[in-house]
Amino acid sequence: MKRVIHHIGGLSLFAALCMPVGTVIGDDTPVSQPGAQEASLVFEVTSVEGKVRVAPIGTDVMRDAGWTIVKQGEFISAGQQVRVPIRSRVKLTARPAEPPTVFLIESSTTVSFSELELRDGVARSRIQLPYGAVKAGVAEGEVRSDMEIEARTATLSKKGTDIFGMEVHAD
């Protein structure tokens, strides 16, 4: 049974979940509705330590084929996944957003970005976390945040300003 964790307001949230390592979560990207004012939302790589890699969603995380090294100043967009090996980490900043959302992907983590869009003043992010740990800081201004981080056993749903983390461990 999947649990849904809704988090609105407060200072922090930490969700520790158990699931097998290497589990891939499917891409349930919704289709945009016509007539909505829509723009691209991306995450800029603002800091990188170690050999962080990026590839299209669906690329085998156990193989090096199809993965490229991430460099500071590059952008992560919808349809991509990020693999952060041991002794590595990457900090991403949402663009455009003022003030920005900052997303930290910790060591030994894989994250997929299935949906990133800016529509009608709302930055919508749909992120899958098969294993590992992420932290984020979101401050709202002219752009509101609507972020969901999905794991096999729970979904963190965040709207508004907050600082939070989510961690998924192997059994």
Could you give a short description of this structure?
With 171 residues, this protein is an all-beta fold. The protein has strands at 3-8, 14-18, 38-40, 42-49, 53-56, 68-69, 75-76, 80-84, 89-95, 102-105, 109-119, 122-138, 144-150, 154-159, 162-169.
Describe this structure in words.
The protein has strands spanning 3-8, 14-18, 38-40, 42-49, 53-56, 68-69, 75-76, 80-84, 89-95, 102-105, 109-119, 122-138, 144-150, 154-159, 162-169. The two termini are 16 Å apart. It has no helices and 15 strands. It is globular and about 40 Å long. 32% of the residues are buried. It has a 15-stranded mixed beta sheet that branches. The protein has 171 residues and is mainly beta.
Q: What layout of secondary structure does this protein have?
A:
Blueprint: E1 3-8, E2 14-18, E3 38-40, E4 42-49, E5 53-56, E6 68-69, E7 75-76, E8 80-84, E9 89-95, E10 102-105, E11 109-119, E12 122-138, E13 144-150, E14 154-159, E15 162-169
Parallel strand pairs: 1-14, 2-15, 12-13
Antiparallel strand pairs: 3-11, 4-7, 4-9, 5-6, 5-8, 8-11, 9-10, 10-12, 11-12, 12-15, 13-14
Termini Cα gap: 16 Å
In total, the number of strands is 15
Shape: globular
* Count, helices: 0
Strand content: over 45%
What class would the helix/strand composition place it in? mainly beta
Main β-sheet description: 15 strands, mixed
Q: Detail the poorly predicted runs.
A: 1-36
Helix content: under 10%
Radius of gyration, CA atoms, in whole angstroms: 15 Å
Helix-strand sequence: EEEEEEEEEEEEEEE
Task: Give average pLDDT, whole number.
Answer: 79
